[in-house]
Target: DUF5679 domain-containing protein
Amino acid sequence: MEAYCVKCKSKRQMQDGEKITMKNGRPAMKGKCPVCGTGLYRILSTK
Model:
């Protein structure tokens, strides 16, 4: 899954992505940027 990396300032393919549920109950994907190692998050649809 792709997510925007704020350090690289571009979209990157997420590495080691895992589906999580945030505190407010919304689903999200959490992973790492393969280039710089920064944490990436992508909020998913509730549908």
Remarks:
- The chain has a mean pLDDT of 94.
- The chain has no helices and five strands.
